[in-house]
Amino acid sequence: MKIERIQTGKVRIKENQISRTKGIIPPMAKVLFSKKWADWVPIYAWVIEHEEGIIVVDTGETHKTSVKGYLPKWHPYYALAVDFDVKPEDEIGPQLLKMGIDPKKDVDKVVLTHLHTDHAGGLHHFPNSEILIDRNEYKTASGLKGMCAGYLPHRWPKWLQPTLMDVPESPYSSFDRSLPITKDGKVMIVATPGHVANHISVIAEMDGVYYFLAGDTSYTQENLLNKVPDGIGTNESIQTLENLLAFSRENPTIYLPSHDPLIPERMKNKEVIRQQESTCQIRKH
Ligand SMILES: [Zn+2]
After folding, report:
1. For 265-274, how does the pLDDT look when each residue is reduced to its tens digit (9 = 90+)?
2. Has residue 280 been placed in a domain?
3. Is residue 250 part of a domain?
4. Does residue 77 belong to any structural domain of this protein?
5. What is the CATH number of the domain that holds 146?
6. Distance in Å, CA 215 to ligand 1 centroid
7. Do the domain assignments include residue 13?
8. For a Cys-Cys bond, which of 15, 75, 110, 256 suits 36, CB 3.0-4.6 Å?
9. What is the total count of domains within the chain?
């Protein structure tokens, strides 16, 4: 097995979307009206070259986000709270071709951690792959309701007929719900609700090390370690961060969320999550 990272351009959001702040102002209002932009961060997608086939996790963003009229500027989030910098050659399709992988022929499965545009924007490159999406996330993101929630369902490829997953109650280490997507059980989906209610992550085990493809479970490893949820997530965020930390105490884990600028270094050094010993750790056996 081999795990590779593809950067599909950059995105810029507000600081208080990256890290939740306290106060009585509703979180989305804070994000929309804040003047404090965070630095540009990468948009990562992942390729797992598994013996049973190639699995892509998230598809990154499309350069069309810079084409006038593509993003719904009537939506306050797109008008006020996000900027993209994606060039045509940054898209996942051309980058896979450069790696010798034809996205139209060679990719067995595509898993989406959730359907926000910076994860689903490259879907059009995979017309012949099985696309795996959580059933409830697909429901939430579809139609007018989905558009109002900030998804771009009208930009999904017309051919999209995903395999809708119900991640079952089936414990995997510290996670209550999980689903293997390879026969050898080395690539697992786990439920990581928080950023959105039906967010999932993919864990790939290679040589005893667990590569945790976390989507937007948190934007950075620092926020995971400090249990700081993102600014717009649900109440389940902190529980998910705790589950993830518990997982990393049981299993050597390299944390790979979609927008952490420190990931190249972390991958190069095979740096696993290390937590300070706490006297009140509850260990699951
Ligand atoms: Zn994202």
Report:
1. 999 999 999 9
2. no
3. yes
4. yes
5. 3.60.15.10
6. 7
7. yes
8. 15
9. 1
Tokens for 35? 């003047």
pLDDT category, 275, cuts 50, 70, 90? confident
22: confidence class by pLDDT, cuts 50, 70, 90? confident
Tally: H helices and E strands in the chain: 10, 13
Q: Distance of CA 146 to CAs 59, 115, 184, 190, Å?
A: 19, 10, 35, 23
- 279 Cα–ligand 1 center, Å: 34
Structural domain range at position 141: 2-268
* pLDDT confidence of residue 19: 84
CA of 1 to the centre of ligand 1 (A): 25
Residue 131 pLDDT: 98
pLDDT of residue 280: 55
Instruction: Give the Å distance between the CA of 280 and the centre of ligand 1.
Output: 33
